[in-house]
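Below is a filled-in request sheet from our internal design queue. Each sheet records the structural input a requester submitted and the sequence that came back. We keep these sheets so that new team members can see what a complete request looks like end to end.

REQUESTER: design group, bay 2
PRIORITY: normal
MODE: inverse folding
CHAIN LENGTH: 403
BACKBONE (tokenized):
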């Protein structure tokens, strides 16, 4: 089977070497071991030989999959700015790639979605959608905007969702990362499977029986620095923990999308009197991320809206117990008291209370760690990746039989 993948997170090329920030690129690496050919068509930032790559990126070895370079648009806005000049070239490129492959897997949201689906229909190539983000609830522009700007973003999000649902009706298979998104697509098709990205491998696991073994409790928040991640609420919770005698220290790993937002968070930490207890760090290259999980005691996901962020499973694989807001895919896939402690969003008191309970109850903490390992094993490529390959092959074989 020859598989084409459409990705939106940009890659970086320095000379002949490729670098990536997001771990989704590990999926084609895994798939390539089970397919005749895998090609990734993704935006690429090209740097001159000798220039350093971005510090948050890590070097990837494409191995048996190849990269087909697309224009470096960084957003839907960037895509539509290029569209008048580049659309015919994109259509020709899509036609050539589709001609060489048996099926196309598209990671959604993607501004290329409508174009690729239309070209795939012309070539009678099956389309598999992986819906890995929810534009309806996770648009930071929509959350942060007010007035007419908010109305404009709302209309844009509605148009993006309509494109996604239309593509879903025409797709041969749809995989969604949360039950909420799956239900949205089930209004128009019978079968939608809930599945997280199988980017994790059993080789990534770090085994430990317990955390919180020193008098200082290290909390981890790994996310984009955007309003929907609820970091303000988390800072309030850290202040409450310190007042209750819990020596909490928070590490925030991520990068701002809107200039000045990190400074706003740092100022809030100063106003709360906890600035020296909070460390902001930019993205850490994925091949060093295991060290970040291993040096912390509890992962806290404080989002106001969320899918099922990959940091949850990555933390589970490194023995990190979880406190999480009950929103989106997190509420769908996690069970309170079994694999996480769940709290309402926008509630610093509840967030601080859950962390305090985790610190003081060693039996609970150890049980959550053990269950987390089981959850992580169940979504490794070794477990669900081969199943995914078999399902895509069945789609391709069924399309070929129907020709």
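RETURNED SEQUENCE:
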């Amino acid at each position: 089977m020859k598989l084409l993948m459409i990705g939106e997170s940009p890659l970086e090329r320095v000379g002949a070497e490729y670098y990536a920030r997001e771990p989704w690129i590990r999926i084609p690496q895994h798939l390539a071991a089970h397919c005749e050919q895998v090609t990734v068509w993704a935006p690429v930032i090209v740097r001159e030989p000798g220039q350093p790559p971005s510090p948050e990126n890590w070097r990837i070895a494409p191995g048996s999959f190849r990269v087909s370079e697309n224009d470096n648009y960084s957003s839907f806005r960037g895509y539509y700015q290029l569209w008048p000049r580049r659309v015919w070239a994109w259509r020709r490129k899509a036609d050539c790639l589709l001609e060489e492959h048996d099926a196309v897997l598209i990671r959604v949201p993607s501004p290329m979605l409508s174009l690729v689906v239309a070209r795939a229909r012309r070539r009678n190539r099956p389309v598999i959608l992986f819906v890995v983000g929810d534009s309806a609830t996770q648009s930071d522009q929509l959350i942060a905007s007010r007035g007419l700007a908010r109305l404009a973003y709302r209309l844009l999000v509605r148009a993006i969702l309509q494109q996604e649902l239309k593509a879903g009706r025409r797709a041969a298979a749809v995989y969604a990362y949360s039950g909420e998104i799956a239900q949205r697509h089930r209004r128009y098709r019978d079968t939608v499977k809930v599945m997280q990205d199988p980017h994790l491998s059993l080789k990534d696991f770090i085994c430990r029986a317990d955390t919180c073994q020193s008098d200082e409790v290290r909390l981890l928040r790994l996310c984009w620095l955007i309003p929907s991640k609820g970091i303000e609420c988390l800072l309030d919770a850290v202040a409450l923990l310190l007042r209750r005698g819990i020596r909490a220290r928070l590490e925030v790993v991520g990068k701002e999308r809107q200039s000045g937002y990190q400074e706003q968070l740092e100022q809030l930490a100063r106003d709360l009197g906890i600035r020296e207890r909070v460390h902001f760090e930019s993205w850490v290259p994925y091949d060093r991320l295991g060290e970040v999980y291993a040096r912390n005691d509890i992962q806290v996901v404080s989002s106001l809206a969320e899918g099922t962020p990959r940091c949850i499973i990555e933390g589970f694989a490194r023995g990190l117990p979880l406190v999480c807001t009950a929103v989106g895919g997190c509420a769908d896939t996690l069970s309170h008291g079994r694999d996480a402690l769940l709290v309402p969003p926008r509630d610093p008191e509840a967030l601080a209370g859950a962390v305090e309970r985790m610190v003081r109850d060693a039996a609970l903490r150890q049980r959550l760690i053990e269950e987390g390992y089981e959850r992580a094993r169940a979504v490794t490529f070794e477990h669900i990746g081969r199943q995914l390959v078999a399902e895509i092959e069945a789609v391709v074989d069924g399309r070929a039989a129907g020709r």
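SHEET NOTES:
- The domain at 2-200+380-401 is CATH 3.40.50.2000 (Rossmann fold).
- The chain has two domains: 2-200+380-401, 202-378.
FILED BY: M.R.
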